[in-house]
Every structure is written in C-alpha cells, then in structure tokens.
C-alpha cells in the first residue's frame, strides 16, 4: 500500500518490480486490497490509493445494506381479532409488534406491546374488544420497502422510538406486508459486521 501511496497510479508490473516479485505472486494481494476498498484499479492506468480509513470503508459497507438483506418474517393478524387473542399471539410468536391487516390482506394498523398493555389495564373484557379499536392506524404507521437502505430505516426507528417496522409492497389498493425490520435485525447486522460477514 505504501508503494501505491507514494507512486500511484502505478501498474501491477511496476509494484511487482519494486518488491522483486512476479505479477502473478502479487495478484491475490492486490485483489484483496482492491475488494476491501483501500486501493482502486483502473484499466491502462494502474492502482491508486483511495485514501479511505477503515472507518470510512465500514461506513461505505453499511450504506450499501438494504432492508431485503436482513428483513424477517412478519407476524400478521386480522383487524377483527380480539385484544385477548392478540396478546396470546404476541406471546406465542415471541414478538413485540403485530401488523394488522384487513379483509384484503392490506396493512391497516400496527399493534405494539404498549398498546396491548394500555388496553389490559382497564376493566374492559379483552375477549370482546377488537384490535382495530386500540391499534395505530394509517396514515400514522411508519413503514419501509425492501429496497430501502437499512441505515435509513434504523434512523426512523430511533426518531419514532419504535421497536419494529413493517416492510411493505405497494399494491393497487394499499400496502401488503411482506416482512419486518426490528431492533433485533439491527443487532444481527452489527454482529455480522463484527464478524466481517457483510458484503
């Protein structure tokens, strides 16, 4: 890298000469440095140093990750389900957020732990109250699409102080739920980055 910093742009042959190596011996090392983003290669010009630090290269990687790379399976319930059944579903599925759909399987609401807790504090009969009474409704639902950048979705989770977001696909009459992004998904990304499993 120092040779490229000092003499770049420089061809692979010239780097090999300076190190008294063959071009073939050097090829895997140059490929790794190029893939990692420390060097760039241009045909008929040679290699040059990008000047990027490890932190900048990591930030570049993070900015390329899409929602579709880490989304998980959504837990969807019907808007007529009772609050009691929604609580049971949340426990059985071990999730913190349920996505509520209508007769046409379109997103109409989101139900969080807080919503269910708030409903269960009163003296209402939970088996007779439908979730559509207590859910957060459109247009107040924050959602994302599979091609959105994960870093932008993470920013929304922080700003809105929510634990999960539905991943939706636009259809004629509204939005179909195709996935979810949660704080747990974000933690998985962090672990994958630390293990260098990303990109």
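Q: What amino acid sequence fits the structure above?
A:
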């Amino acid at each position: 890298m120092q040779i490229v910093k000092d003499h770049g742009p420089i061809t692979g042959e010239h780097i090999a000469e300076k190190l008294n190596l063959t071009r073939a011996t050097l090829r895997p090392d140059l490929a790794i440095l190029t893939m990692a983003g420390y060097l760039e290669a241009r045909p008929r010009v040679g290699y040059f140093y990008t000047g990027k630090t490890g932190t900048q290269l990591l930030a570049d990687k993070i900015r390329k990750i899409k929602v579709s790379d880490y989304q998980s399976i959504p837990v969807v319930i019907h808007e007529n389900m009772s609050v009691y059944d929604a609580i049971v579903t949340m426990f059985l599925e071990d999730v913190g957020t349920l996505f509520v759909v209508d007769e046409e399987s379109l997103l109409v609401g989101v139900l969080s732990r807080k919503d269910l807790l708030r409903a269960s504090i009163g003296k209402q009969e939970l088996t007779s109250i439908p979730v559509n009474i207590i859910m957060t409704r459109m247009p107040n639902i924050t959602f994302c699409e599979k091609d959105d950048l994960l870093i932008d979705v993470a920013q929304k989770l922080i700003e809105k102080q929510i634990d999960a977001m539905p991943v939706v696909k636009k259809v004629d009459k509204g939005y179909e739920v195709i996935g979810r992004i949660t704080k747990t998904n974000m933690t998985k990304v962090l672990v994958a980055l630390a293990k260098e499993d990303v990109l």
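Q: And what stands out in the fold?
A: The mean pLDDT is 89.
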